[in-house]
């Protein structure tokens, strides 16, 4: 591809480089540009050559991804040198003042020249989309005794951070570095005395969200690294930062944020053991409920389903956390898992509510428990309610804020309040349960006069359901407040993982009939042979 014959230069892409772009194509392009000896070029020619350089370097960026830092820096330097050389050909002698500016896909350029008879007191601020520069060009021109002229070239590179990575900023603190501005270059082309009369000031618009906990550094590029020497942050707010530097070169704004704290391996192991213990007891409780139909008057459906929902939820959560590194790259899978967790935990709560409602109905209709209940609240009907409510909440959440699923831990994202799609329904259910329990207690006290076996049995039942409610509901309330408190975190881990254990304790170990069933079972298992 031929660019231009004007002024006797022709920059061409090497043979075959349009089909397959290699590093050599770019090398060759650099060389051709370095070989240009003409002092002035038309703007259009410069734009075409720059486009060619940036298009070519963009194409080989992928093959550069495996390059060593030194190689990257070296390519970055050549892109900078090439651009600066081309920009200097735009400077033409002027008597008063003149300017040139253009915008390419990868680069924005402003050139301002002043001559011996400039009438301006101060040159206007040089602006590009995301950054601007204040420089005392008039003062610099006055310092050039011979020509009494000067020129400034201002370049803002849109994609340069791919080569001059923020990681090239080496600090004693091991922090995460983020490029907060476009990379800019300020040069004084064709100016003999480049000594600055005043510090040069840059205003950077943040191209990424500013983390209030981060620390900002104005840096300049010195051959192979970003360094701060001579640059400082003048002022900053959430969207802009003003930097001041006492020399010219290539600049950027880098934000340092502390690394995510190393996951606490002790706590992780403790959590793993706790969750596994909890899962074992969940399974035991589930088995017991399924095998022992001990109280015909009491419906087991709700309790079995609480166990199923929470067992699956805890199991899925455990597996997800163990294989997080494999799952996280698969955005969709991660989001689906967090949706499923949302559904399972929520249905656990809905079933808890159903259990309280069933108990309430029992207490209300003390006289006609067994006969009526079965028909009104058949298991099938309960299952529909127990799972459909949670499903509806998840579907609505997916419909409204689909991007709310799939956080770092494949759970619901906690920012922007999306977590309330879980906490909201949970709080409502907990509140309703509290109301129900108050009603149940009042009802039981009123019917105290009857003092029959039913009442005392219901009382124990109410106590147990209340205990279960506290055990299942508390961890989540606590979980919201664990912000970095070690003690609270440990309590949360214990309470949350031992839900299965508590349920097993309350309904199986502390239940006479179940204990008898167990005894029978053990006898059959271990002593059965002796009888024969
Ligand atoms: C640049 O110039 C040198 C000698 O001045 C020459 O050897 C080299 O081939 C030139 N490079 C290109 C790409 O034209
Ligand atoms: C470079 O790419 C842009 C679009 O990405 C295109 O408009 C332009 O023509 C290309 N320039 C050259 C010299 O290939
Ligand atoms: C840059 O800011 C400093 C401090 O506010 C000021 O002294 C200096 O004159 C400014 N430079 C320019 C070129 O405006
Ligand atoms: C970064 O600085 C540390 C000392 O502060 C030094 O040991 C290390 O070699 C430096 N790394 C690079 C890539 O310059
Ligand atoms: C590095 O860490 C020390 C203390 O750990 C802190 O005082 C200093 O400001 C940090 N430096 C940067 C550049 O963040
Ligand atoms: C300016 O910054 C915005 C982000 O704030 C970015 O999307 C845009 O591409 C940048 N434009 C240039 C020309 O650097
Ligand atoms: C780059 O840094 C070295 C020391 O760190 C210094 O001697 C040199 O002058 C710097 N170069 C430029 C262009 O600032
Ligand atoms: C932040 O600072 C910039 C430059 O100093 C200013 O233009 C902008 O209005 C400020 N923004 C806010 C939100 O204060």
UniProtKB/TrEMBL annotation:
Keyword match Electron transport: no
Cellular compartment(s): Cell membrane
Gene Ontology CC terms, in alphabetical order: plasma membrane
The entry's keywords: Calcium, Cell membrane, Disulfide bond, EGF-like domain, Glycoprotein, Membrane, Repeat, Signal, Transmembrane, Transmembrane helix
Domain GAIN-B as annotated: residue spans: 110-261
Residue stretches making up the G-protein coupled receptors family 2 profile domain: 267-511
Topological type in the membrane: Multi-pass membrane protein
InterPro entries attached to this UniProt entry: GAIN_B, GAIN_dom_sf, GPCR_2-like_7TM, GPCR_2_secretin-like, GPS
Regions that span the bilayer: 269-292, 304-324, 336-361, 381-402, 422-448, 460-478, 490-510
Taxonomy, superkingdom: Eukaryota
Molecular-function GO terms, alphabetical: G protein-coupled receptor activity
One GO BP: cell surface receptor signaling pathway
Family affiliation: Belongs to the G-protein coupled receptor 2 family. Adhesion G-protein coupled receptor (ADGR) subfamily.
Protein name: Adhesion G protein-coupled receptor E3-like
Naturally occurring in which organism (per UniProt): Carassius auratus
UniProt lineage: Eukaryota, Metazoa, Chordata, Craniata, Vertebrata
